[in-house]
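Supplementary Methods S3. Input chains for the assembly prediction are listed below.
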Amino acid sequence: MPSVSVRNLTVAYNKGRTLALDNLNLDIRDGEFCVFLGPSGCGKTTALLCIAGLLVPTSGSIKIGDQVVISDDKKTFVRPQERNIAMVFQEYALYPSMTVRGNMAFALENKKYPREEIDRKVNSIANMLGIEQLLDRKPAQLSGGQRQRVALGRALVRDPSLFLLDEPLGNLDAKLREQVRFELKRIQRQLGVTTIYVTHDQTEAMTLADRIVLMKDGKVMQQGSPKDLYNRPINTFVAGFVGTPKINFLECGVTAKENRPYFNFGRSSLPGSPSLKAKLSGKACVIGIRPSDFALADMSDPEAIKGTVELIEPMGDEILVHFMVENHLLVGKFDAADEDRVCERVAVKVDPEKLHVFDGKTGDRIA
Amino acid sequence: MPGQLHLTSKQKLLHAFYYLVLLLFAAFYLLPFWGAITTSLKSSAEVFTTSPLSLPDRPTLEAYVAALNHLKKPLINSIVVTIGGTFFSVLLGSMCGYVFAQYRFKFDNIIFVLVVSAIFLPYQAILVPLFQTIRRLGLYDSVWGLILAHTVYGIPMMTLMFRSFYGDVPKCLVQQAMLDGYGPWTIYRRVILPSTKIATVTGVVFQFASIWNELLFALVLTGYDAMPATVSLNQMMGTLAAEWNVQMAGSIWLAMPVLVLYIVMGKYLIRGYMAGSVAAT
Ligand SMILES: Nc1ncnc2c1ncn2[C@@H]1O[C@H](COP(=O)(O)OP(=O)(O)OP(=O)(O)O)[C@@H](O)[C@H]1O
Ligand SMILES: [Mg+2]
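Predicted structure tokens for the full assembly:
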């Protein structure tokens, strides 16, 4: 199974006025499950189309395995028919005149598989996706979620060297989505097929990905493992996009006391890690605090920040507490067992090492 | 009654008025047709003694038999020419439309405009060169000459029509088929054509009706052997000046195929004109 490398990929629409992709660079390893994550319109689909060969980029080159599929000078171009890629389109793209079975078998017919083998493959994938009773229907007679599963099944029956999946689970209900997600990951592991999966749902990205490529306005913001993105977001955009509930941001001034920096907002302040002191002095910055990084403290603790509780959301074994500190609404996630320690007011502390510190102007990570 | 509109008496009156006007129009349009039917069912003797609109005293099919005898060969010519011309113009027009709709190439828009501008060429302007070309090709007075002329003349219109139909086919369908490993020809045959059946029906009916009813090309490009029914009927008017019943029967013979086609295909046509040609993807 091949790796994919993308160099300086640029796609401009409207005679250069819209940059759908702006100098994109990617390296996806052999057998990796890579997720393109980003808000709507950031260029995820455009990137997939270029890799599939369905869109010729304005500039840049792409290599799949050892083969250059499009070179910088565009002299080399491997046609989509010859790239052995299976893609699930955002719009499903089911052939309206064919039955579900016909749709799933279409690509296999081209490869001259024997009829029995086609039937066997189609049936087994259909069973797995729970669409075996739909095999003789036409796409027009299916619900949105069923169509989506057929589109996914059509990709899975093939033996491609690369899967490109453009929001393949967007239309499924929560339960089905979880189930299909699990199956998908299992099949991908089993087959070891390099996969690029597009979504704007960060939970999906976190659970599926070996590597997340987080995009914004046609540029890669950060790529790395889900852990990397969660634990060391390189700027406020990444920090805000990854993780639920959303990270809390606070704009602060910094003062140094003794050997450690203090982040001040209003009359409250939070201690930072001593190692940061040198990097920060006097700068305005934004700190990010994950809701789960808040720890409950005693109201008497002078280091703790205190807030007024606005709302408590029970989530089973956890509670989400929305509280107001100095006109900032913050969210904390705590153990449900601690619910009685949260009354009208709450006191919280944060491990200084767990604070994410960003530059106040550029939003880039300082520490 | 549930589900029914309740109309005030004023609205009812207005509705009645609308219907009256529409009925008058319908009657006006159907009058010639009515005359043709009644006249064609009369015997030659009765035609002279009665008004054209009155019902026949003793309906008879003798005019139909006479007309058919006269029109047999031309009708066969018409059938051959119409089927051939329709087939080739729809096939080629649909292929051109597919290319213009789904592929981008150098000067594609200019070529498209050039092809389509032929629709606006007046018939008369091309008559003489057409005649000369067909004669040089040795196809004068042959059904093949007429088929060729109708095919060429039909392609621009069909290209325009099919391009707009195929433009509605989602691009991702074609892209999907490419990733499934297929080339343009298979994609056209197995993806585009089967998912736009209504477009094909619309094209066929349109071409069938225009070629079947066409007179001018037929008049210029055929002599006796390949003469289609429209020309023959026209000549009948000249030679059988008095036999109105036979002429009307001939007209009805001639109108029949197109009429049947419209009735059978009508529901597709309306859908084809009204909505997109592609079933849900
Ligand atoms: N054919 C086109 N012509 C002009 N602009 C386009 C075209 N296709 C895409 N764009 C623009 O390029 C940008 C990227 O589009 P793209 O479809 O790749 O976004 P996306 O990340 O897939 O979004 P979504 O999550 O909504 O599917 C958008 O700003 C879009 O408006
Ligand atoms: Mg998209």
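The two ends of chain A are 38 Å apart (CA to CA). Chain A is about 25% helix and 35% strand.
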